[in-house]
Design goal:
single chain; alpha/beta; 6-stranded parallel sheet; 3-stranded antiparallel sheet; 17 helices; about 50% helix; globular; metal-binding; glycosidase
């Protein structure tokens, strides 16, 4: 008996990288059936037809199908990879512009861009997990959907028994860049990390002899020897946004040199500097729509029209490998170490035990077993407390539809300077997202 994998949000432009890794590693995953499921008929049929052709012509024996019927997709599923985006990048760009216009960060997971995305995505994901419980209760859900920090808080609260792992490829991408800097194989290094998704810090980087490399990195940064890290991720290497991000991450480390920061902390600690880079007429959402999105769907159309994918190829990068590595660890009970989002339950001993945190864990057939971090310092803990309160309030707002709760969530977000701006941005986002958010009363 082989495994049935379902791509939930199979029409996403993030799917191709994962589809390529699944094709390359189908035997070790015992993958026999692959379903692309999406509510967007046009997108899922474009990527579905392409994938069917591409798999067949590369000699894959995996049975590929695509559908907009959730029952058909989920019945008999063993693994679901979830990355959905209600409102698509179109809504993302609208949110970004509303935020930037009001002088606050517009990023899609941080600040009120993340809040708006969460309000769109939480109801949709709750519906999907209810369906999983009904149709394939033993299936594992590996979630890549953003904003992961808030969404994981909602998922683990509402479905404490569900087999779900919320993951993000950002930590491993940064770890890859650190490994590259030291000319080391990523697998030979052990990273100690704590925080919440898009809101965390590395405390140590141990090499194969147990020697901590972080002091060396700190020294090289403080002495001005390096001002950026080279990315290990092929897809983003030539993307100016990511080039700037990796530079800003080193600049942040220089200013707060105790621990090495996750790059997304730039939106909370240096929001003014981030806004200087923003172009209200062409935001990140616009860039993705006119770049990756256009490229991928045009290529699907070209291949479908030609009737062959022989002269086409998909690229396997960090994003695809990370989620497949975790599925592999579950299937083969490897108990390999990954950074995941789970309820704290004492991993960070001086932080809310019921809060979802992002920490290293051993992953095997029973899921993820978190690694103890111990106490964390006041500065990081203080930032996390406020951010966690914001995340919890956002989940409350999405589940109850309370306007007052939404406003309180907004005021807890560090990117919002005062009530006047917070309320204005909230009201404008609500107006622009009427088709997607719960009704607020």
């Amino acid at each position: 008996m082989g495994h049935k994998f379902v791509m939930v949000g199979g029409g996403s432009t993030q799917s191709p990288g994962i589809l390529e890794v699944l094709r390359q590693r189908s035997e070790e995953l015992d993958l026999t059936d692959l379903v692309l499921y999406d509510i967007d008929e046009e997108r899922v049929s474009l990527l579905g037809q392409y994938t069917k052709m591409y798999y067949a012509e590369t000699g894959s024996s995996v049975n590929v199908s695509y559908t907009t019927d959730i029952d058909e997709a989920f019945i008999g599923a063993d693994y679901l990879f979830m990355q959905i985006r209600p409102g698509l990048n179109r809504q993302r760009a609208i949110d970004e512009k509303i935020c930037i216009q009001n002088g606050v960060v517009g990023q899609e997971t941080c600040g009120l861009g993340g809040f708006s995305f969460a309000m769109r995505v939480i109801p949709a994901v709750m519906e999907i997990i209810r369906k999983v419980k009904e149709l394939c209760p033993d299936a594992w859900i590996l979630n890549y959907t953003n904003p992961e920090a808030i969404l994981s808080e909602a998922i683990y609260r509402e479905f404490p028994e569900a087999k779900v792992l919320c993951i993000c490829d950002m930590p491993i991408s940064i770890e890859g860049a650190i490994a590259k800097y030291f000319n080391k194989d990523l697998r030979d290094l052990t990273f100690k990390y704590f925080g919440m998704n898009h809101f965390g810090w590395w405390t140590n980087v141990y090499d194969e002899k147990g020697h901590d490399l972080l002091p060396q990195l700190r020294e090289d940064v403080l002495s001005g020897k390096i001002d950026t890290l080279l990315q290990s991720n092929e897809e983003t290497k030539s993307d100016q946004y990511w080039i700037d991000t990796y530079k800003q991450m080193i600049s942040l480390f220089k200013r707060f040199p105790d621990y090495f920061p996750n790059c997304y902390l730039q939106y909370y600690l240096t929001p003014d500097e981030m806004l200087e880079h923003d172009d209200i007429n062409f935001t990140r959402g616009d860039y993705v729509q006119q770049g990756r999105e256009k490229r991928i769907y045009e290529e699907c159309r070209r291949v479908i029209a030609a009737g062959t994918a022989k002269d086409s190829s998909l690229h396997a990068g960090v994003h695809g490998n990370y989620i497949v590595d975790i599925a592999y660890a579950i299937i083969h009970n490897t108990r390999e170490r990954f950074t995941v989002n789970k309820k704290n339950h004492g991993a960070i001993s001086n932080f809310d035990p019921e809060a979802v945190v992002e920490v290293p864990a051993y992953v095997g057939s029973m899921g993820a077993e978190t690694i103890n971090i111990g106490n964390i310092p006041t500065f990081q803990k203080g930032l996390m407390e406020m951010q966690k309160a914001y995340e919890k309030k956002t989940v409350d707002a999405a589940l109850t539809g309370s306007y007052q709760t939404a406003l309180e969530a907004v005021m807890l977000n560090k990117t919002i300077p005062n009530y006047t701006i917070g309320k204005k941005v909230l009201d404008e986002l609500y107006e622009a997202n009427k088709d997607y958010w719960p009704v607020l009363k």
